[in-house]
Amino acid sequence: MTNSTPFTQFILDAYLDVGLLKYLVFITVMCLYIVIIVSNVLLIVVICVNRSLHEPMYFFLCSLFVNELLGSTAVFPLLLTEILRDIHTIPVSFCFLQIFSIYSYANIELCILAAMSYDRYLSICHPLQYHTNMTSTKVAVLIALTWGFPVVEVGVMVSLSAPLHLCGNVIPKVYCDNYYIVKLACSDITVNNFYGIVYTVIIICSVLSVIIYSYSKILKVCFSGSKQTRHKAVSTCTPHIVSLLNFCFGCCFEIFQSRFNMTYLPTVLRVFLSLYFLTCQPLFSPLIYGLNLTKIRNICKSIFCVNRMFYNLSVSAELGSNRHRWLISASVLCCSVTP
């Protein structure tokens, strides 16, 4: 798709000149990115390899972790590059690619969280019919919808923004944002605004209706059910609620910051909070689910215990081998000095 703007690059204007501290910031961000990759990949492998985790809830979790890997990859490589640069620019084509990736990540994350709340509703409110209702085919269809619908919606949004004629090329953020590109347009943006409103309403209303309905039914069962039912609801729903609230907080701040004037906040705080839903969600989700879900926690413990056992055995074998060699050397030395 051809962009009609005369600019070939966008300027990302939110980067601060921190001098030599940029190297410390670079190392910190790099370590954060490595932790995100390792933790998410570890849990994806754990879920895929262990047949005991081949259940609907864990398939949704695996989809969540894959999305968070893609979302963090949409922002971290560029962020690391720009931290070390003095001039913060990005080509127009890469800017729209980043917009597509970030918006897709955010919408897919919300849809997966909504699908997970529906799964918890069926598991807690209809436990006897759970495996009948949540078949492998239905899980596959839900996962396909949670990815396909947001990707199509975001694709249409980007296709409407790309042809706009722009009067400027300065974006006051550390990454590309469709809202600010539309604000830079000189041409008519009525279609963009209308589609943006419809698109936002559809996503938010559909996601919120599924989540509110699911958890209202779960709460009703908890208040009227047995102690075992309440314990199951708390143990399986707590990580999901924490993850949902964490992500919604980051998204809400980003929306408020873009739509309303929040320049009274320190620039560093605004930059951090604008990156929150892109960095903290992929970082916290593996910890939240890995520590709170018993099956995943036990399997991770067993993996680390086995690795530690093999390490101890290898060290013991190496020490034993060294000791054996030392005894042989001592014997040879004694024989050589004996008259």
From TrEMBL:
Gene behind the chain: LOC115431175
Main location: membrane
G-protein coupled receptors family 1 profile domain boundaries: 39-289
Organism, as annotated: Sphaeramia orbicularis
Gene3D superfamilies noted in UniProt: Rhodopsin 7-helix transmembrane proteins (1.20.1070.10)
Protein family membership: Belongs to the G-protein coupled receptor 1 family.
KW Transmembrane (keyword) present: yes
Any one GO cellular component localisation term in the record: plasma membrane
GO molecular function, one term: olfactory receptor activity
Keyword vocabulary terms for this entry: Cell membrane, Disulfide bond, G-protein coupled receptor, Glycoprotein, Membrane, Olfaction, Receptor, Sensory transduction, Transducer, Transmembrane, Transmembrane helix
Listed name of the protein: Olfactory receptor
Alphabetical list of PANTHER family matching this protein: G_PROTEIN_RECEP_F1_2 DOMAIN-CONTAINING PROTEIN, OLFACTORY RECEPTOR
